[in-house]
């Protein structure tokens, strides 16, 4: 029997044409996400991440290739049965309360529960916004709106959750809470497709990462493969002169950061001392962005 994927992109291309130029937002993208898998879609601004999501949601429907959600062509609305989506900046009805919004989600998905109110409150509590359950959305902070939007997605217990930059707008505590909830959802068998242009806490729950650049899926890697690529690389922070072209900008006035392989550390540190700079810290490089740039450098686009 043919395997049924949560998501299957087959050779998908999308161009935006204007009078002056053509942008290839997706170029022959093929990828699959298994049921229960967490797939991180990573790429810089303008890489094609939102376009990919809009294709899944059929907001963009004039593309080449085929997209299937649980085996159903994404052009059909019923492909999105059991699929929930949270955009980067959720636009929830401002005049409603979080509790009303979650109740509406249950109605929209045709979910009837005798304990509907308690069930919704449970999800608002889970996202630490139960105290705001009866205030209007327009009175809530951006971070709390984001939490309500995530609760609104999970209250219907989707089998696939599509998240555009899920942690943007959340403080560190909020990010940890959300990642814990998503990890729980994954343990219960849920699949997630999330986009990110900066990687952070959410990467710990991903099973695989796809790297997109200029509409092209460059590679798909597991966290284990990425960890191997990061091994032996260090992030050096120092104060003083930008002694090396590779330093990635000022962190604060006069502070710099550079990523180096272990073999180059001693020479670099001696050079810092020699020109009067001060070493602030040396830590193993853990940023997925740095791996992304390595992939970019080693992949002909
Ligand atoms: N409606 C549109 N008309 C014309 N060009 C578009 C349109 N939507 C997207 N693009 C272009 O397609 C490319 C991919 O855009 P997309 O929004 O998918 O990138 P992204 O990876 O989501 O970026 P970001 O991280 O900034 O949200 C960009 O060059 C963008 O300018």
How would you sum up this structure, described in words?
The protein has 301 residues and is α/β, with parallel strands linked by helices. 29% of the residues lie in helices and 28% in strands. It contains eight helices and 13 strands. The protein has helices at 49-56, 98-108, 116-126, 142-154, 172-187, 223-230, 265-274, 288-298; strands at residues 7-17, 22-33, 38-42, 64-69, 72-73, 83-86, 160-164, 191-196, 208-213, 216-221, 233-239, 255-261, 278-284. The strands form three sheets. A six-stranded mixed β-sheet has the order 6-7-8-3-9-10, with helices on both faces. A hairpin with a 4-residue loop joins strand 1 (7-17) and strand 2. Helix 2 (98-108) packs across helix 3 (116-126), helix 2 (98-108) packs parallel to helix 4 (142-154) and helix 3 (116-126) packs across helix 4 (142-154). It is globular and about 70 Å long. The chain starts with 6 loop residues before the first strand and ends with a helix. The model has no long low-confidence stretch (mean pLDDT 87). Adenosine-5'-triphosphate (ATP) binds at residues 16, 23, 25, 43, 45-51, 197. GO terms for molecular function: ATP binding; ATP hydrolysis activity. Pfam families: ABC_tran. Residues 7-239 form the ABC transporter domain.
């Amino acid at each position: 029997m043919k395997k049924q994927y949560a998501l299957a992109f087959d050779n998908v291309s999308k161009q935006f044409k204007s009078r002056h130029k053509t942008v290839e937002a997706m170029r022959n993208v093929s990828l699959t996400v298994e049921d229960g898998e967490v797939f991180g879609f990573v790429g810089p601004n303008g890489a094609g991440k939102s376009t990919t999501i809009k294709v899944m949601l059929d907001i963009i429907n004039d593309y080449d290739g085929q997209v299937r959600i649980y085996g159903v062509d994404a052009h059909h609305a019923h492909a999105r049965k059991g699929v929930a989506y949270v955009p980067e900046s959720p636009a929830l009805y401002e005049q409603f309360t979080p509790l009303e919004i979650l109740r509406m989600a249950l109605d929209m998905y045709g979910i009837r529960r005798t304990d509907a109110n308690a069930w919704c409150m449970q999800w608002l509590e889970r996202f630490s916004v139960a105290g705001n359950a009866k205030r209007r959305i327009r009175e809530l902070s951006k971070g709390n709106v984001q939490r309500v939007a995530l609760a609104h997605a999970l209250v219907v217990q989707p089998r696939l959750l599509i998240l555009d930059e899920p942690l943007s707008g959340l403080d560190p505590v909020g990010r940890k809470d959300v990642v814990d909830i998503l990890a729980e959802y994954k343990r219960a068998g849920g699949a997630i497709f999330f986009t990110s242009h900066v990687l952070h806490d959410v990467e710990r729950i991903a099973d695989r990462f796809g790297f997109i650049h200029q509409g092209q899926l460059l590679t798909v890697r597991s966290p284990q493969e990425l960890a191997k690529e990061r091994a032996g690389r260090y992030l050096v922070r120092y104060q003083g002169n930008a002694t090396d072209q590779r330093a990635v900008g000022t962190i604060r006035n006069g502070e710099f950061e550079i990523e180096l392989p272990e073999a180059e550390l001693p020479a670099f540190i001696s050079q810092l001392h020699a020109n009067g700079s001060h070493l602030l810290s040396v830590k193993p490089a853990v940023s997925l962005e740095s791996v992304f740039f390595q992939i970019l450098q080693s992949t002909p686009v």
